[in-house]
Design brief:
about 425 residues, Cathepsin D, subunit A, domain 1, four-stranded antiparallel sheet, binds 2-acetamido-2-deoxy-beta-D-glucopyranose
């Protein structure tokens, strides 16, 4: 697909040429792991294994939170606010840097803005809309008000307000606004590439389990208000990321690419359809089964008449991979039968398949994940994770809720989301390259 013309926003010559240059082919930004030294969450006093153990505990807490919320709630949302990756964007003129959680499971881009009715503490300065010369509020009759569906009209000023809630009762309420959003690219130019007139939320009432470190959320879902969809006019509706292995995150940075550069071609590319279903902010895939050393275990009901399509979501913000419990039990016994190694006591409750081993797990079985049309052959480190020095555990776990393909399983693959064809592509890669 050709990159759409950028002339529609060439209202300032400087912006125009910078954007046009960067948009040819696409644009790449750093995807910052929360435990990397560039992240505001980075704690230099922790060892890599302490970070690994915490990442597993976060993943378990997230899925547990889901279960305990279950009563009454219509299939509770995952708590979306403690994602594992961040992107550095700027908003406004002059640009203010925002270190936002990159979230494939939410639509709206938002940050906290004064005057606050209630803002949670954050380390970085707030984006002050009255200090930005390019900031505009959105009228409630405007199409831009309806890009996001949880909006209402402030009858006093006829301005557009939004309200978002996350699965764990965190929320943000604020004004739908537009301003220039800048992305600092990995290309040589130090200036962020500007995207004028982007719709985002200026939150004046925000509370819940937000962290003081992150200063907003950048939605990467297929919803019309997400960053990807809004950039779709400038870049084809296509993005991809390449996550470096967990224990390399302090040395190398993962990448997030938009536009035609995110197209995967060549040897090793596999493609599976993304399924549209509710809640629609997630990307759903169909998991048919998993092979352990060539023996395939199928997900019940994933093929044949009455097949359950879209039975798994893919998420970069969850560390472990969560399988339907009945499939998990079969996989766990096949994996433990294949590994001839002393079992170790797990440092984490309810997370039990662990071995006394450090570095590469010798004799780890080969594991292939079968999505419809796409067989993804995992590396040992996609499935085994050293969560404590000398203790390596299987990084898949059982759930009775919505299965999730997590980020450890995606490391050292290009994972490309094509929102025009509604397809997801994988290609093995060295993401530290
Ligand atoms: C974020 O981007 C701004 C502007 O491009 C830059 O000055 C800042 O150093 C970046 N921060 C990080 C942590 O990369
Ligand atoms: C939100 O909009 C209202 C109405 O225009 C305005 O009074 C208020 O200051 C705005 N708040 C923020 C944080 O922009």
């Amino acid at each position: 697909m050709a990159t759409p013309s950028v002339s529609s926003f060439c209202f300032v010559i400087l912006l125009c040429s910078a954007a046009a240059e960067a948009l040819e082919g696409g644009l790449s930004v750093e995807l910052i792991h929360r435990d990397s030294p560039k992240s505001p969450f980075y704690d230099p006093s922790e060892t890599p294994f302490q970070r690994a153990e915490k990442a597993v505990r976060r993943s378990i807490a997230r899925v547990r939170g889901l279960r305990s919320n279950d009563e009454g709630e219509p299939s509770a949302d995952i708590s979306r606010i403690d994602g594992e990756y961040l992107v550095n964007i700027t908003i406004g003129t002059p640009p203010v840097s925002i270190m936002a959680i990159a979230d494939t499971g939410s639509d709206l881009i938002w940050t906290q803005c004064p005057p606050c009715y209630a803002c949670f503490p954050q380390e970085a300065p707030l984006f002050n809309p009255s200090a930005s010369s390019t900031y505009k509020q959105v009228h409630c009759d405007s199409d831009k008000c309806h890009l996001f569906d949880k909006t209402s009209c402030n009858r006093e000023g006829f301005t557009c307000e939004y309200a978002v809630e996350y699965g764990d009762e965190s929320y943000s309420v604020g004004n739908i606004s537009t301003d220039i959003i800048g992305l600092s690219t990995l290309a040589a130019s130090p200036e962020p590439v500007p995207f004028p007139g982007m719709v985002f939320g200026c939150g004046f009432n925000n509370d819940g389990l937000f962290s003081i470190h992150a200063t907003g959320i950048v939605g990467l879902s297929a919803g019309p208000a997400s960053l990807v969809s809004q950039m779709g006019g400038y870049l084809s509706r296509l993005f991809a990321y390449c996550l470096v292995p967990f224990f390399s995150t302090s040395k190398y940075t993962s990448k997030l690419t938009f536009g035609s550069d995110a197209q995967l071609v060549g040897e090793g590319v596999v493609t599976t359809p993304m399924i549209l279903k509710s809640p629609r902010q997630y990307y759903y895939l169909t998991l048919e089964g998993i092979s352990i050393n060539g023996k395939k275990f199928e997900v019940s009901g994933s093929s044949g008449p009455g097949a359950v399509t879209g039975n798994m979501i893919i998420d970069s913000g969850t560390t472990l991979t969560w399988l339907p419990s009945n499939l998990y039990r079969q996989i766990e016994s096949a994996v433990s039968a294949a590994i001839n190694f002393p079992r170790a006591q797990s440092p984490i409750a309810d997370y039990s398949l662990c071995y006394e081993s450090s570095g590469e797990l010798k004799g780890a079985p080969s594991i292939t994940v079968h999505f419809t049309g796409a067989d993804v052959v995992l590396n040992w480190y996609n499935a085994f994770f050293e969560v404590k020095e000398g203790i390596t555990c299987f990084s898949f776990a059982p759930t009775d809720d919505r299965p999730i393909y997590g980020n450890l399983a995606q490391m050292n693959f290009w994972v490309s989301y094509d929102l025009t064809l509604y397809a997801l592509l994988f290609k093995p890669a060295d993401c530290a390259d």
